[in-house]
Amino acid sequence: MTSNNQYPHWLYNDDGKLDEELAAQFIAERDSLIQHIETAFADVPYPGDANLTIKDGDFFANVAETRRDFRGKHWKDLSPEFIHEHPSALNIFTRRAYHFYLPAYMIGILLDANNGSLVSTQLLHDFVVGETNWVAVQLNEFSAEQCAAISAYLKFHYLLFDKFDLRQSGDYVEQAIMKLETNG
After folding, report:
1. Which pTM does this prediction carry?
2. Which of 66, 114, 138, 142 has CA atoms 20 to 30 A from the CA of 4?
3. Is 44 contained in some domain?
């Protein structure tokens, strides 16, 4: 990984020097999690060009743009930069498209940790809102392996971001993990 953002800011000391030992541990854990996500979601089918987003005009203005930008694209081919340019897509995907593209969002955040706060906040919100949230309702569409991968992602996410940027969301992360582990 050659991204300048591959290491979270907290892996650097006050002098700006990278803590090499901690960075190596971080990279090993991150790469293991990415492999877990890729394996868990490997067989999720592409939802089809006509089933990517909600209908035009439904609350969000960028539906047609999102549909155009994601049309024909496999989640494995989306870069962290592409993901960060489309944070609101999570809100306008159909259930099948959300299921298909979710791994790209988790991996994009993991690979570009310092630029992922908007996308990571949105993704975290999807899993921690009350029982009426449609993602919580659709969890039974995820396999046990996928729920385990999402749960592992949320645990790592908490370590990666909440430690410094999202302190108040710790209880919500724990609630989301419990939901995933009981659905899995």
Report:
1. 0.82
2. 66
3. yes
